[in-house]
Amino acid sequence: MTSHPHVSFSTPAGLHEAYDDDDLAPRKRLDTDLDPAILPQNDSYINSVYAATNYASYDRTIDPYSGLGSTHNEIIDQSGLPDSEKVIELSPDERYVRLNTLLGKGAYKVVYKAIDREEGYEVAWNSVQTMRTPSNKELDHEIQILKSVRHPNIIAFHDAWHNDNEFVFVTELMTSGTLREYIRKLKPLPNLKIVKRWSRQILKGLVYLHGHNPPIIHRDIKCDNIFINGAHGEVKIGDMGTAEMKLGKKYTLIGTPEFMAPEMYEEQGYNEKVDVYAFGMCLLEMATGEYPYAECTNPAQIYKKVSAGIKPACLGNVTHPEMLSIINNCLGPEDERMSAEKILEHSLFAVEPDVILMLSDPNHVHLTMQVVFKGMDKLSVKFDFNVDTDTAEQVVREMIEEQVLPERYQQHITKEINRILRDTDKPDEPVDDKPSVWRRENDIRSELDRTRLELQQTTEHVLDMEAKVEDYEARARNAEAKYQEAMHRLREKQQLFQSLDEMVSHPHSESAVASSNTSSPANTLPVLPSSSTTVEHRLTPDSNGYASDGSHPPHEPPSNALVSHLVDEYGDDTDIDVFVRDCALAAHRSQEKAQEWSKKLQNQDIMTVGDLRDLHDEDWAGIGLTVFALRALKNMLKGKRLLAGQPLLPSTGTAHSSPATSAYLSPSPPPQ
Ligand SMILES: Nc1ncnc2c1ncn2[C@@H]1O[C@H](COP(=O)(O)OP(=O)(O)OP(=O)(O)O)[C@@H](O)[C@H]1O
User: Fold this and answer.
1) What is the pTM of this model?
2) Residues flanking ligand 1, CB < 6 Å
3) Nearest to residue 211, comparing CAs of 199, 220, 203, 201?
4) Which of 36, 365, 636, 648 is most buried when burial is the number of CB atoms within 10 A of its CB?
5) Ligand 1: distance of its center to the CA of 432 in Å?
6) Closest residue by CA, ligand 1 atom 17
7) Which pLDDT tens digit goes with each residue over 67-114?
């Protein structure tokens, strides 16, 4: 039961008040307990409360394990069962049955014991009254988050559903209540070792949550929301309902005033460090047994202190210097606050090793012991101990000298060995029955369970990664095949251009003829009738740009007009624009294309024909022009210029005059 108010803008205030009395009233008392003054004056709301009341009190009698009677509401005799074992409610899919055992109630939820009939274990049935039915989208989002969270130090989420005005979710059942209740049980205070062990587990849970991308912020860490399984000393973070993926900064004010970092009040946005602040308050409560800001009587007073940077009064009761420094850091400014991971690495939380007795002869003289380092460094050191000749101090000193043990544990391990010696000294008591050894075995077993779970999670992760890698490999192979194919096609095209070039330059050479007969685009080209080292003007284009013999009807591309024309060389100082424009014209490319080529050349500081001539072979590739454009430019430069039936347009060159406009005979060039 939480006696301190819970600020939540998403929870109906009336319901807080309703649950804030100490009587653990079942839901059916809602209608009578609620103060009408704090209820919304709305008939439909009041009706829905009544509906919920009736629903809850409706006696759907079901056998907890068999579910008999569940589908047709037939009343079966439960008189043999104790009241607490009676079944009150069934989940929509009939997997979970709620028993008549109230585990507790908080500011906005009531928690009952339930049974998972599929797995056969007990679970916690959390019932939250809502003013409105959450949309499926909202619910799916929250459920998605909760289901994705799996860690030994976080209460497992199993299932969720909603009825009218009620949201139910089923979680792992914790047997020993909250950390807050437990602290009070360990009067006067839990010792340092226990505080460290609890803290380590809370921090591990936080490191896990904050390690998500984006981080999951719990937003309501406090000792009331941390639960204990007393038998194994296991600690788990619960009440994940308020956690939310951090997408940038959050602006929702939600939490418990005493545990809320100043930036949460400011509404300027906050990040996962608010959980570290709240952890600092938990540490303070564990170390002092006092609720932080107990000196304040209302949230407004707390807010005033927090925003003025005034720390809780009980901080003055923390005597352990390292503990004090960590708490101060947690409660300090956000940018100086350590991450949960950093705090976990702090020497205060370094795991103290356990010493266990493994073997003993019947006389308890020859003992075999083992130092077990839990947590991060899973080391263990096994050693023999002769009760008649050895002492704990001397054996530990030797192990430190031999660097088998770190020196900082000298005192602790010596103490532990002496404890075992004292225990074994007691005759007639079988070693196995000793509570301390039993406790350690349990510790190890639960550590083993945790490690198994971690291993399973890691294995799943590795399998997942392997599947992804295989997928990437397949994609890479596919891309490689496509690349090879493209290269092959490119090479074919280059060869084709080469042979066409050759055919144009040496029209009667065998290779040119051969290639012209084998390459499909070239097959359409007539073989030049005579060879000439100088280029001959075979056909003169008419005013329409077509050969004067009329062999090319106007709809045929002029490139097929076999007209050659020798033109003057371009001077080195010819403007590159002029040269390129001519070149494009000769290659039947538009002036826009010419400008594009020109721009690319000028980007490489090629401003004149001379600059172009100075280029080395390897520089050409870096210009960023297509193979076709490069070839056109190179051929033009080498003087392989032929008129191609294109109308002779006057050169527009001004600064540097262009030679008579020339054309490059293009073999059906690919589209640019
Ligand atoms: N998983 C669980 N196993 C056992 N008991 C539980 C579990 N969850 C909650 N409880 C019990 O129910 C009580 C109410 O739960 P809880 O404090 O989470 O409610 P709440 O409405 O979220 O309150 P608050 O927001 O003030 O923390 C707890 O104090 C605890 O005794």
Assistant:
1) 0.50
2) 2, 6, 103-109, 111, 124, 155, 171-174, 177-178, 224-225, 227, 238-239
3) 203
4) 636
5) 36
6) 106
7) 444 333 333 456 666 777 788 889 999 999 999 999 988 777 899 999
Centre of ligand 1 from the C-alpha of residue 111, in Å = 6
DSSP 596: H
Q: What is the mean pLDDT of residues 143-164?
A: 86
Looking at every residue in the chain, the average pLDDT score rounds to 72
Phi and psi at 650, nearest 5°, equal -65, 140
The arithmetic mean of pLDDT across residues 546-566, rounded, is 37
How far CA 556 is from CA of 124, 128, 151, 320, 582, in Å, comes to: 84, 81, 75, 96, 22
The answer to whether 396 and 405 have CB atoms below 8 angstroms apart is yes
Under 8 Å between Cβ of 41 and 76: no
From the CB of residue 379, how many other CB atoms can be counted at a distance below 10 Å?
Answer: 13
- What is the residue with the minimal CA distance to atom 15 of ligand 1? 106
Q: What is the pLDDT at residue 540?
A: 34
117: three-class secondary structure by DSSP: coil
Q: Quick: pLDDT tens for 589-647.
A: 888 889 999 999 998 889 999 898 888 887 888 888 888 888 888 888 887 544 333 33
d(CA 113, ligand 1 centre) in Å: 12
Catalytic residues: 220
Q: Please tell me the distance between residue 452's alpha carbon and the centre of ligand 1 in angstroms.
A: 28
Nearest CA to ligand 1 atom 21: 106
Residue type, 200: R
Using alpha carbons only, what angle is made at residue 182 by residues 27 and 26, rounded to the nearest 5 degrees? 5
